[in-house]
């Protein structure tokens, strides 16, 4: 009996430690805001009253899709470095190192926390306590790292979330009713104004995030590399405008969204060093 209680206690602690409260708050805000938009005298409500259910249904499905993508990105493996072995076409890490001229490529470093050998562009996350391949940043919104495996889905999520938020903004504005006095106006529109405030703030945040990430994707750079360039061994000796992973906007975007395999960045770095533009 005592063992069962201890197991349940550990499960509860794990849920809270892995972002349960953040995800629950995000989900609650999403559905409360959606409910307000459906219940007030907005365009959605008017469409329902006229029996035109297509737009309300599409909006509802878009919200559901945004929530599903949110949980997918927040619970997905961002690209944890599990062992010293780099699996894939290149075989073991030792084989890969022997294929790369060490004179032109910085040696792989060993993480001081995980004690694992870090592939190029990987970084240890102090919050997740793991090393992440092609580390971008740890996002407190999803309570997960954004890395090689979930970065593209993070951007897809931001795009879908932005569409839902802009549509919600339009719906909320359509429901604002006039009032004889300011007090009456606030009383009539209070919940709708609160929803409008939440949607407006989230819209600005998502626009900034999406814009920054699309720019970084277009130059094949991560947030960590952009912010800490002077401290990263494989970048600090490059010129200010030089990026060894940049192959042009079109190729960068294509590789980011369409290449799903693990990339051996050491080889990309070596090829760029051997064939400078």
What are the defining features of this structure?
277 residues; mainly alpha; two-stranded antiparallel ribbon; two-stranded antiparallel sheet; 10 helices; EC 2.3.1.225; Palmitoyltransferase; acyltransferase; transferase; lipoprotein
Tell me what you see in this structure.
The chain has one domain. The strands form 2 sheets. Strands 1-2 form a two-stranded antiparallel ribbon. A two-stranded antiparallel sheet has the order 3-4. The chain starts with a helix and ends with a helix. The longest helix has 37 residues. It has 277 residues and is mainly α. It is built from 10 helices and 4 strands, in the order αααααββββααααα. Its EC number is 2.3.1.225. This is Palmitoyltransferase. GO terms for molecular function: protein-cysteine S-palmitoyltransferase activity.
The neighbouring-strand order within the major sheet is: 1-2
Number of helices: 10
The unreliable regions are 86-103
Largest sheet: 2 strands, antiparallel
Q: Summarize the helix and strand pattern as letters.
A: HHHHHEEEEHHHHH
Count of β-strands: 4
Bulk shape: elongated
Helix content: 55-70%
Instruction: Tell me the β content.
Output: under 5%
Rg over CA atoms, rounded to whole Å, is 24 Å
Could you give a short description of this structure?
This protein is mainly alpha-helical. The protein contains 10 helices and 4 strands.
Strand and helix layout:
Elements: H1 2-17, H2 20-39, H3 43-49, H4 54-75, H5 93-99, E1 123-125, E2 130-132, E3 137-139, E4 144-146, H6 151-174, H7 182-218, H8 223-227, H9 249-258, H10 265-274
Antiparallel strand pairs: 1-2, 3-4
Helix pairs in contact: 2-4, 2-7, 4-6, 6-7
Family: Belongs to the DHHC palmitoyltransferase family.
Domain Palmitoyltransferase DHHC: 108-228
EC number: 2.3.1.225
């Amino acid at each position: 009996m005592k063992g069962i209680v201890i197991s349940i206690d550990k499960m509860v602690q794990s849920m809270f430690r892995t972002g349960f409260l953040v995800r629950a708050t995000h989900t609650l805000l999403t559905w409360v805001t959606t409910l307000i938009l459906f219940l007030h005298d907005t365009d959605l409500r008017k469409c329902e009253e006229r029996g035109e259910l297509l737009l309300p249904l599409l909006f509802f499905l878009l919200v559901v899709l945004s929530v599903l993508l949110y949980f997918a990105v927040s619970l997905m493996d961002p690209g944890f470095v599990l062992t010293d072995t780099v699996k894939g076409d290149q075989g073991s890490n030792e084989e890969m190192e022997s294929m790369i001229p060490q004179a032109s490529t910085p040696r792989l470093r060993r993480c001081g926390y995980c004690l694992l050998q870090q592939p190029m562009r990987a970084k240890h996350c102090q919050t997740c306590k793991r090393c992440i391949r092609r580390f971008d940043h740890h996002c407190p919104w999803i309570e997960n790292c954004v890395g090689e495996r979930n970065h593209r889905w993070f951007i897809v999520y931001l795009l879908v979330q932005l569409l839902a938020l802009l549509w919600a903004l339009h719906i909320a504005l359509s429901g604002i009713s006039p009032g004889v006095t300011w007090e009456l106006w606030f009383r009539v529109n209070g919940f709708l104004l609160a929803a409008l405030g939440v949607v407006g703030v989230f819209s600005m945040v998502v626009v900034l995030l999406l814009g920054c990430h699309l720019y970084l994707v277009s130059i094949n750079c991560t947030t960590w590399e952009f912010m800490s360039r002077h401290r990263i061994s494989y970048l600090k000796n490059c010129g200010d405008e030089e990026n060894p992973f940049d192959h042009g906007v079109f190729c960068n975007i294509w590789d980011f969204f369409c290449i799903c395999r693990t990339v051996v960045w050491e080889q990309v770095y070596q090829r760029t060093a051997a064939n400078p533009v």
